[in-house]
Fold this sequence. Notes:
Layout (H helix, E strand, L loop, with lengths): L1 H14 L6 H8 L1 H10 L10 H18 L2 H5 L1
Amino acid sequence: MALVTYLPRFLGFMLSGKKVSPFWLRFLHFVPIAVFAALITPSLPGSSGEAPLRLIAAGLAALAIWRLKSLWLGIV
């Protein structure tokens, strides 16, 4: 999903022949984490009784991603 989202934007910049501005580089940097959050958020409630455990797990994953700057660690 991240590739489908990121690749067309990046190619558009590359095909235009212009250098990508720092603003757009910062913007594109956040696309993978936004896609990850969009995929995970709807499944957080789970079935009955699972919500507290899932929220704790999501919080720990978010903390790991934030502190260690590694999306892959949060996915694991």
